[in-house]
Amino acid sequence: MTEIPQSSGSLSRRLTLQLMSGAAILATMLYFVVLNVARDLAETSQDNILFASATAILEATSVQGEEVEVDIPYGALSMLGNVSDDRVFYRISVADTFLTGYRDLPQDPQENGAGSRYFTDTYKGESVRAITVMRRISLNAQAADVAVTVAQTRTGQMATVARMSQVALISGAGFFTVAAVLAVLTARSAIRPLNRLAGSVSRRGPKDMRPVIGPVPSEMVPLVTSLNRFMARLKTSLTRSEDFIAEAAHRVRTPLATVRTQAEVLLRRVDREENRHSLREMIRAIDESSRAAGQLLDHAMVTYRTDHLERERIDLAELVRELVARLQPVAELKDLTLVADLEGDAWLHGDAILIQNAVRNILDNAIKYSPRERKITVSVKRDGESINLQVTDEAGGFPTEGSALLTERFARGQNSAGTVGSGLGLTIAKEVAEAHGGSLILNNTKDGGGACVTLQFV
Question: Which CATH number belongs to the domain containing residue 334 in this structure?
């Protein structure tokens, strides 16, 4: 069972959250910056108009004889009313003596000498923005300060700030939304090379040890380099193991054949029944060992070629016809009938040696397990986009439970007692089918009297 590594969290989610957190901070800063700028602009606009109004009134102030006369221009106060519906107040005093306007209108508490000063205060229950402009004149041969204070309620200014605040809020929310979308896209883009690498490796077969050669970001180069080195070491180890199995099977099979020949010669010369029985058991054990060595050699060959399929256009019907003809003498030794039901349109692209090996192992199993004087049918038929090669026998069928385990290495059924075999035949057939993108299907015939093995090629 593959051990699943412990997860420390999603890298994509972590990157997305970090980018979105930064976007939220920037959106908040944007909101307050825009709000402060809007407040300053609204206040500066009102201050400029107040200054223009107060200056106009101050310029309209003159000394006539021993009195100060003020001819308040109409535009001095109307310009404030045109901007908004706020109320406007004014107060004119000479040398701390009230002259005209609103007597109780507050003046800048820090007023001192000529110049102008802005201030914010409360008047008649409302917040007002005011300016005091002063000019020194000569009155009765003495210096006197004329102070003009103009004030306006801040309702319009606050409404403007509120509108700008709403705009700033919408701008901040829009900025955050766009930044959040970009953060998600950026995180996905950053993780995409990892996902591509994982997908490339996961789609490979169990024996595909080719190095990863696609372009990757520079940050992933050490990871890919380590992965390629690991696969190179693993490939070397697997190759050595397969070579060892193939060499061992080859070296074991030749001496076993010699020993079997000598045992058969000796069997003809021995008269005592107990000795003949021992020799028969020896010959059977030799046959089983030779069969196992041969199938180990076949399996090693299949394992190697599945990584390097030599695909060519194959007439599957013709391939099966030749194989049936080759195995016919073996079947006749048990009085078995091999029947071929083949269609003409059975062309596919595949490795002829592997497919022939898989079909031969399936037929060999059917011949071994079938009782005498029975029939084995091999059919090749096209079903839409797939080609099905079926081998049916009359050997009793597969067990109702655990038939899927028969495709595992060295697995054999309950009816295998007394039959020479290694448990690799169906394993080889399954690996060949999967190497060609197909599958191996194990079923029983409808009447339950036999097994049906299907090689399906897509």
Answer: 3.30.565.10
